[in-house]
Design brief:
The complex is a heterotrimer of chains A (286), B (257) and C (357). Chain A is mostly helical. Chain A is built from twelve helices and no strands. Chain A has helices spanning 10-39, 55-62, 64-97, 102-116, 118-129, 134-142, 155-180, 183-191, 196-225, 228-234, 241-252, 255-285. The longest helix of chain A is centred in the first third of the chain and has 34 residues, at 64-97. By secondary structure, chain B is an all-alpha fold. Chain B has eleven helices and no strands. Chain B has helices spanning 3-28, 45-49, 54-86, 90-101, 108-122, 128-152, 157-164, 169-198, 201-204, 214-224, 228-252. In chain B, helix 3 (54-86) packs across helix 10. Chain C has nine helices and 20 strands. Chain C is elongated, with a radius of gyration of 25 Å. The longest helix of chain C is centred in the middle third of the chain and has 18 residues, at 169-186. Chain C has a six-stranded mixed beta sheet, sandwiched between helices. In chain C, strands 13-12-11-14-20 form a five-stranded antiparallel beta sheet. Classes of the chains: A mainly alpha (286), B mainly alpha (257), C alpha+beta (357). Chains in contact: A-B, A-C, B-C. At the A-B interface, helix 1, helix 3, helix 4, helix 5 and helix 6 of A face helix 1, helix 3, helix 4, helix 5 and helix 6 of B. The structure holds adenosine-5'-triphosphate and magnesium ion.
């Protein structure tokens, strides 16, 4: 009754929100529930015949193979996040501070992986690192080696290409946060006698932590969910959670266990997000 | 920190990042039957052959349909939602908005799997339509976020000014709000299109021979036959993305000089 | 019945949640009348204007335009022109399209609209800027365009919400005079919102002073200054000194500074606790003790010279600050020197305290 007459009425609000809500409920909420049900052994469509069981979760927790897969996934997430943060910080700082016209060119360069898609980047690194690829060709031609090196397949290839793919997600929040740091703070620290390194460690870095943390979260989640790149660059036996899920569907035909692994992966994402939110909240209290 | 060193560092990284893409372009021009380096020569062979490959043509057509449809439907439903959410309110901030963004948090492969099970349980055959639904769900957060950011920066008096000048709510939306959010909206739509046009994990489980998409076709090639044609297709895919992004920039440019 | 009024508000109320922002506001404007809503920030001026415009629905009361209830009409059906605080020009439209917006919404034909736009633009002297975009205009030019946009549809009523808030003083004064004479020439009924008392006093036919959602006085600028109806109004308009105290039986107002004689009308209200109010121009510096019915000793705290006038600020022994208007060419008094101040009984007003009523 006190709402303003140019504001939307209750009915208008509902009508405007409805289409998006329907799509998200039908296209996302219900499928997620089906996935969850399946992970407990309940087969949608045959509710009455199937019985809820936690056996798939027991299997996951009891099988050292899958625990190792979970461990590898988390490990890759941490390694790539840390490496990307270190490599991306100078770029983010540069993009935020420089007034040079080159910055927009650099921005375009670092953002390309986002625009060209995973398959293009993966293909590029396969060609660079492959037995008949760019690096081996270069080394063979210069006579540095006689037999091609095994560069492709394994941690090294996956980490390098993964850093490439997620780089943008780290640069953007760092750039945003550095933009908000008053440049005169750094000048003040220098005038007060801090060297460039002390200034960085004691002024710039602590103030950029929120940006780094935001980047960390996105990168970590991206790595944990990555599939195409680790599958093709990791090679045989390099199994992360998404790859394990894919194998359950295409090789073992075990839908329920695939669902269980999926739920576990979602749980990991949620835990990481909650952790990050918690850390950020404590930080902001200081 | 000396910006000059940082500039050199950024330039080197930029080159390293673009290099894999250039390598793909080089390989795509190799007339040989397998991928190798240095390339055996340069010819447009694979660029010509790919157009007589029925799977690739179908996949390309499907991808364009799915990308365009899902990003446009995404805009059609996300913009009205953004209008409501932008008016604020606790419930909007803490429940409705996070609800629409929630599909951001689920890994794409897992989402694709959930869709596979869901369409199975619903008894629906996999088709372009089922694919479009999935891609629309992932398009919504991108479009919603940019649109909302623009709407929140819009002075509330603009719509009021339109109304007092005689515009009905609809007229005010089309003559003031829509032009105001246009460039942000176009950016959101084109980004959603790119996401759809390059997406493998969501589509992986829910594509069949009939509704195969371009990235899935490329993925199958990369897994099964690793020949330079896959590089040529990838280059064509990137070129199409480039064209679409440039066109979007033109459409999205605001004419206020 | 009340069609002689262009705009009429009858006990209009507005609540946001459990907070009442506008309380029982009533007034009626005749054709061509210019009313200012004046009051401190947050007193409900914009809210009142928004209800007239139709952006907010009143929680109670009635609003009529030319005798017709309009509370249920959406803004676009109210036939009102409005200038917003930051102009709210449409950034994607040229000046011409901004001005012509209302005509387009009404389906006026292109050629006809073009002439209307041009004549409106000429009225506010922006006819040379028609092809520019708002961001290419100065603040004053944007202001003019906003006014042209509001006037082009020849509305029954124009609302102006602090239209000069963002302009510098010289430009503001120039536009005040120009816009006032334009509106008078067009004979358009206007409600003008401001928190600047000079602006309100200089432009208005009548001023409504609002405090906390209520109109405490509505009258001509002169009356407002010369006989403020409430202590709030007295304190808000112009300068002055308040002395706290009470009226005793024999027509005397007793304060900590002493007992002051009252004119008969004020003395009639007996045993009242309240404030005794003096304007700077009613207080004089006197050399001869006993020249005025009421006199006190004070110490000069400052002299402020404002070109056309000069104010002596002097503190009484208890710290009460007195403002005394002196001739602008009178010599400066040394700070700290003693002065004797006096005033006549009839120049004071007594405001009853709410608690003593
Ligand atoms: N939509 C709203 N919801 C809740 N409270 C509101 C709303 N709009 C205004 N108010 C409150 O109503 C009161 C009056 O606001 P209003 O904008 O009318 O004041 P104003 O007199 O125009 O002040 P100013 O001179 O600062 O513009 C304020 O306390 C404000 O906080
Ligand atoms: Mg206001």
């Amino acid at each position: 009754m006190t709402r303003s007459s140019t504001d939307l009425g209750q009915l208008a609000r509902i009508v405007l929100l409805l289409p998006a809500t329907i799509i998200v409920v039908v296209g996302y909420v219900l499928p997620s529930l089906v996935l969850l049900a399946l992970s407990f052994g309940i087969i949608p469509g045959k509710w009455l015949l199937s019985e809820a069981t936690t056996s798939h979760y027991m299997r996951l927790l009891g099988d050292i193979y899958y625990l190792r897969v979970v461990g590898y996934t988390l490990f890759l997430g941490i390694v790539v996040s840390v490496l990307t943060a270190i490599l991306a910080f100078p770029v983010g700082y540069y993009l935020a501070r420089s007034r040079s016209r080159l910055t927009s060119l650099y921005a375009v360069l670092t953002f390309t992986p986002l625009a060209v898609g995973m398959n293009m980047v993966t293909l590029g690194w396969m060609i660079i690192l492959g037995k008949t690829g760019f690096i081996n060709a270069l080394l063979l031609q210069t006579g540095a080696i006689n037999d091609p090196l095994q560069l492709l397949y394994g941690w090294g290839a996956v980490i390098v290409a993964m850093v490439h793919v997620v780089f943008t997600f780290m640069v953007l929040p760092i750039e945003a946060v550095v933009r908000q740091i008053d440049p005169s703070l750094e000048k003040a620290a220098r005038i007060l006698g801090a060297g460039p390194i002390r200034t960085f460690v004691e002024v710039v870095l602590p103030l950029s932590l929120p940006g780094i943390a935001a980047g960390f979260l996105i990168v970590f989640l991206q790595v944990c969910g990555a599939f195409v790149l680790p599958l093709l660059l990791g090679g045989q036996g390099f199994t992360l959670m998404p790859i394990a899920i894919w194998e359950q569907i295409t090789v073992s035909f075990d839908k329920s266990f695939a669902a269980t692994l999926s739920v576990a992966l979602i749980l990991i994402s949620i835990v990481v997000m909650l952790l990050q939110m918690r850390i950020m909240r404590e930080k902001s209290l200081v | 920190m000396s910006l000059r060193y940082l500039s050199i560092y950024s330039a080197i990284l930029g080159i390293v990042f673009v290099f894999p893409l250039l390598i793909v372009v080089a390989v795509s021009l190799d007339p040989g039957d397998y991928i190798r380096f240095p390339v055996s020569g340069y010819s447009p062979r694979w660029y010509i052959e790919m157009w007589s490959n029925q799977t690739i043509l179908l996949a390309l057509k499907n991808s364009l349909i799915v990308g365009v449809t899902s990003s446009l439907i995404g805009a059609l439903v996300a913009v009205p939602a953004a209008l409501v959410i932008a008016r604020g309110g606790r419930f909007m901030e803490s429940v409705v908005y996070p609800f629409f963004l929630s599909s951001f948090t689920i890994p794409w492969l897992v989402y694709g799997l959930a869709l596979l099970f869901f369409w199975g349980a619903a008894g629906l055959d996999l088709s372009l339509t089922t694919l479009i639904v999935g891609h629309t769900v992932i398009a919504i957060p991108y479009i919603l976020r940019v649109t909302l950011a623009v709407l929140r920066g819009m002075p509330p008096n603009l719509v009021r000014a339109a109304r007092i000048c005689g515009a009905s709510p609809w007229q005010a939306f089309f003559s003031v709000t829509l032009p105001y959010i246009r460039s942000g909206l176009v950016a959101g739509i084109s980004f959603a299109f790119v996401v759809s046009f390059t997406n493998i994990p969501v589509s992986l489980f829910i594509t069949t021979a009939d509704n195969i998409t371009l990235p899935i076709a490329i993925f199958n090639y990369m897994v099964n036959n690793f020949e330079p044609m896959v590089a040529a297709i990838s280059v064509v895919q990137v070129a199409m993305i480039g064209i679409i992004l440039l066109a979007a920039r033109k459409v999205g440019r605001v004419e206020r000089s | 019945m009340s069609e002689r009024f262009d705009l009429e508000l009858r006990t209009v109320e507005k609540q946001f949640g459990d907070q009442t922002v506008v309380r029982g506001v009533s007034f009626a404007l005749e054709k061509g009348e210019f009313l200012s809503l004046l009051g401190p920030s947050g007193c409900g001026k914009t809210t009142t204007l928004s209800m007239i415009a139709g952006f907010e629905a009143p929680s109670g009361g009635e609003i009529l335009i030319r005798g017709r209830r309009i509370d249920a009409l959406p803004p676009e059906k109210r036939d009102i022109g409005m200038v917003f605080q930051n102009y709210a020009l449409f950034p994607h439209l040229t000046v011409a399209d901004n001005i012509g917006f209302g005509l387009r919404m009404r389906g006026v034909r292109k050629a006809e609209a073009r002439t209307e736009v041009e004549s409106s633009a000429r009225l506010v002297k922006v006819n040379h800027l028609l092809d520019r975009y708002p961001r290419q205009l100065s603040g004053g030019q944007q202001q003019r365009v906003a006014l042209a946009r509001a006037l082009v549809t020849k509305p029954a009523l124009v609302l102006l919400d602090e239209p000069f808030g963002a302009l510098d003083r010289l430009l503001r004064e120039e536009l005040q005079i120009e816009i006032r004479s334009l509106l008078r020439r067009l004979n358009i009924t206007t409600v003008f919102v401001t928190h600047d008392q000079d602006e309100a006093l200089s432009m208005s036919d009548r001023v409504a002073v609002m405090f906390d959602g209520r109109i405490e006085q509505i009258s001509t600028p002169q009356q407002l200054y010369l006989s403020p109806a409430t202590r709030n109004v007295a304190g808000f308009i112009g300068k002055g000194t308040f002395l706290r105290g009470n009226i005793t039986a024999n027509g005397v107002f007793e304060t900590r500074l002493g007992a002051f004689k009252l004119a008969s009308a004020a003395a009639a209200r007996k045993a009242v606790v309240g404030d005794y109010f003096l304007r700077p121009e009613s207080v004089f510096v006197t050399a001869r003790v006993g020249q005025y019915p009421n006199e006190i000793n004070a110490e000069v705290a400052a002299m402020t010279f404002l070109g056309d006038r000069q104010t002596l600020i002097a503190d009484a022994p208890d710290g009460t600050r007195f403002f005394v208007q002196v001739r602008h060419d009178s010599p400066a008094l040394a700070i700290g020197s003693k002065v004797r101040l006096g005033w006549g009984s009839e120049s004071a007003t007594v405001y009853q305290s709410a608690s003593s009523a």
